[in-house]
Amino acid sequence: MSATYSEQAPAKINLFLHITGKRDDGYHLLESLVCFTAVGDVLSGECRDDGAINLTITGPMSASLALEETKNNLVVRAARLLQEESGTSLGADLVLDKRLPVASGIGGGSADAASALRLLCDMWQLDLDQNALSRIALSLGADVPVCLHGRTCLMSGIGEELTDLPELPPVAMLLINPGKAVSTPAIFKAREDEAFSVSGLWDVQREFASGAALADALSECGNDLTLAATSILPEICDVLNALAREEGCLLARMSGSGATCFGIYDTSDQAEKAAIAIAAQHPDWWISPTEIISQQARVLSNIGASFPD
Ligand SMILES: C[C@](O)(CO)[C@H](O)COP(=O)(O)OP(=O)(O)OC[C@H]1O[C@@H](n2ccc(N)nc2=O)[C@H](O)[C@@H]1O
Ligand SMILES: Nc1ncnc2c1ncn2[C@@H]1O[C@H](COP(=O)(O)OP(=O)(O)OP(=O)(O)O)[C@@H](O)[C@H]1O
After folding, report:
1. Has this prediction a pTM greater than 0.80?
2. Pfam families given for it (predicted)?
3. Pocket lining: 223 vs ligand 1, CB cutoff 6 Å
């Protein structure tokens, strides 16, 4: 029997997101403080020797992808690119446990693609150089390089320039998605007339001992896609208000191009209480209390521990 490999695909959170310019090809230059959370998808799989790539999607959010062709799934596209680049004749039977809402600003698809690259490099024992992997990642999407990197960092360029930052403490967070998908290109288009932010505002040396200190520093920044996203989906304002109203909320902000928003809470107890209170009023929203994870925590959780629901 062949071994089962497993990789986590944590949600990506843009703690702040500044749009600093636009390239001639239409892609925007950005600066964003990115971290990852304990909640995420999980990809697992076994090796095949015939080169076939099979993908089964399970989990609470699998229905959102049911109408899409499997060959277009970012996991399968990542696998195909890796086969081409490496020339391997191996394939894989993959299972994606889809827990993150789709098209929701927390990079679910990008995280899945990155986890496929990590899992298959391991399974197929590939020794590709980092540049080749980064090139494949960027060709799959602007958020895939940061998800492949998988640790707290400052992201710039169109998403391919990554500067490591001191790891953040396990800050308590609450993620909420109002259950409506948002198109990233539509949001970038809707902000076309807005001015660009200046870059270089974030002190890359700075360390934070608590969620309160982090939230305080983040209050100087913002998410430059919020206005555009709320004009397309006003329900995002309801989500932000619901997060901010609850006791212990230090900051409420949208991630990426939305519609998922995060709240930073003083304690995990407060984040969990807020989750229960908001769920009672909005049973149709996706609500997930979680925390920021560090790279070290991810490595440890890979050793025998299961990934939190
Ligand atoms: C908004 C963010 O989530 C912030 O992390 C990302 O920049 C989006 O990354 P992504 O979803 O992987 O984006 P892609 O799939 O590469 O691009 C989707 C579309 O978003 C727009 N896009 C994306 C990234 C970027 N830096 N500039 C852009 O203008 C482009 O219209 C592009 O056609
Ligand atoms: N494994 C996957 N998971 C989610 N979406 C996928 C996947 N594979 C392909 N897609 C397609 O990618 C689109 C964007 O999905 P994703 O969840 O990554 O968006 P997002 O959360 O807005 O990402 P970002 O934060 O990078 O803007 C979906 O609408 C879907 O059609």
Report:
1. yes
2. GHMP_kinases_C, GHMP_kinases_N
3. no
Nearest atom in ligand 1 to the alpha carbon of residue 105 is 3
Is the minimum distance from the CB of 74 to ligand 2 under 6 angstroms? Answer: yes
Q: Checking phi first, is residue 106 left (phi over 0); if not, alpha (psi -120 to 50) or beta? A: alpha
CATH class of 172-293: alpha beta
Contacts of 54 (CB under 8 A, 6+ apart): 48, 91, 92, 93, 94
Q: What is the mean pLDDT of the chain?
A: 94
Q: What is the pLDDT of residues 45-71, one digit of tens each?
A: 999 999 999 999 999 999 999 999 999
> Residue 4 above 90 pLDDT?
yes
User: Topology of domain 4-164, per CATH?
Assistant: Ribosomal Protein S5; domain 2 (3.30.230)
Pocket of ligand 2 contains residue 143 by CB under 6 Å = yes
* Amino acid letter, residue 168: L
What ipTM goes with this model?
0.96
**Distance between Cα 141 and ligand 1 center (Å):** 7
Distance from C-alpha of 125 to C-alpha of 43, rounded to nearest angstrom: 17
C-alpha of residue 58 to centroid of ligand 1, in Å? 26
Q: Residue 258 pLDDT more than 60?
A: yes
